Amino acid sequence: MLMTIVVELKDQPGQLLKALEPISKLGGNIVSVYHQRDKITPLKRIPVEITIQIDEKKANELIEAIKRNGVVIRSFNEVRLTATTSLLLIGHIIHTDIGDTINRIDSTGFAEVVDIHISMPQLNQPSTAMVTISATNEEKLKKAIEIMKDVCREKDITVIEPLELQ
Amino acid sequence: MIRIAIFGFGAVGRGVAEVLLRKGDRLRRIFGDFKVVAVTDSKGGLVDDDGVDLAEAIEIKRKRKRLPEGITTLDVIENVEFDVCVEVTVTNIDDGEPGLTHIRECLKRGIDVVTSNKGPLVVAYRDLSKLAERNGARLMFEATVGGAMPLIKLVRNDLAGNEIYAIRGILNGTCNYILSRMEKERLSYDQILAEAKELGIAEADPSYDVEGIDAAAKLVIIANALMGMDVRFEDVERVGITKITPEAFEVAMEKGYTIRLIAEVDKVEGVLRVSPRLVPIQHPLAIGGTLNAAQIKTDLAGDVVVVGKGAGSKETASAIVSDLVELFRCRS
């Protein structure tokens, strides 16, 4: 799942690492880190918004681990993906690094590939995949579709979009 | 007496001549007496101030593949007196010729034009419509988009007063035939294309259809003439159907979709494109065979959907005759 955590860090070297280290330890993927320097607190701490992708079951463990490192957590919440659509891809989907194709969406921080169904008729023949993408809202979903179209243009994969987003 | 000149005597021109012959009485009741004073093709033509014998013209063309030499279309425009030109020469979307010159010369002289020729409208719609207005002539082009399917006059007359937000549809019967057959038979694109060629649905060189060029040309006409836009053919984002696999239909069907080549212009979203799209199987645009369809999104009337035959000489003649009726009905 996608979640955002806002921590408060002292303006000293090495502080950010205390918040980030448990994430990689638990197999999470850091999508973005945003220092809110304009929102500095009276105690001179800097709020930092961290967006990550992590196994849902490990979310609570992560929060505890960050706290144990002495980092103040201001808030955390799951990012809800409310807009979903499916795209049909035709081409050499596997051999053009499908992991990368998916990751280009997942790494946006606002959208992820939630389902993929591939049909491979024969070796060396183009395969077909129905890819379902979810995003935080319809605007972001459109953005994710554009990213997918760009990636597929690079990889000479044909993208068939739905007539309308759900 | 309405004096008609027909420029272009291929399948469409002959189709028009046949309808004028066969339905002469009916048409005379609707818009008064008429005669065809000139018929031309790329090689020659027939001119008769008392009315060309259309049956004879059709027969000559059938036997000799060409009309008698010695007359050019430009001669006719310069020297023969007529009220309306039916411009049905071959479409050329690169520079619109020869139709563009024919239409310009007629409009300049205040002669009304009815055309099925996409080329001149794709290349110079704005110029032509200004030229018509300046000279008190009218330019009618129902037959350029969707064949017999009513769209141009439907939007201009019946939906007049509506804001048109978007129009999207299936504007190429050849592609729709190929895709709906692939959906049904689960055969490859190449196999179905071969079948379509054998049936005369696809040309020997099918690229004009399957690469979405024909649909894009029609989309440009729709955007400029019906939605007040000013777009060029090059502005259309265009993807054809050649890479679609039979498995694509299988995978799509599991989610309740089929695949159709959709031409879409959307003023709100800023979309102008022709591309294969996932269409829900129960959607009104999920039509089969060589049919055309269009969905018009408006502010007052909501969504309006039309379906009809998009090609064929009889069907195109239907659209051309409907334009003639529109032009001259008010006179009688």
Number of strands of chain B: 12
Cα Rg of chain A: 19 Å
Beta-strand residue fraction of chain B: 15-25%
Shape of chain B: globular
Could you say what the CATH topology of the largest domain in chain B is called?
Answer: Rossmann fold
CATH homologous superfamily label of the largest domain in chain B: NAD(P)-binding Rossmann-like Domain
Q: Calculate the terminal CA-CA distance of chain A, rounded to whole Å.
A: 22 Å
Largest sheet of chain A: 4 strands, antiparallel
Mean pLDDT of chain A: 91
What order do the SSEs of chain B take from the amino end to the carboxyl end, as H and E? EHHEEHHEHEHEHEHHHHEHEEEEH
Main sheet: strand order of chain A: 2-3-1-4
The first-level CATH class of the largest domain in chain A is given as: Alpha Beta
**Major sheet attributes of chain B:** 6 strands, mixed
Number of DSSP strand runs of chain A: 8
Which structural category fits the helices and strands of chain A? alpha+beta
Order of helices and strands of chain A: EHEEHEEHEEHE
Mean pLDDT over all positions of chain B: 95
Strands in their spatial order, largest beta sheet of chain B: 3-2-1-4-5-6
Roughly what fraction of the amino acids of chain A lie in strands? 35-45%
Q: Count the helices of chain B. How many?
A: 13
Counting structural domains of chain A, the number is: 2
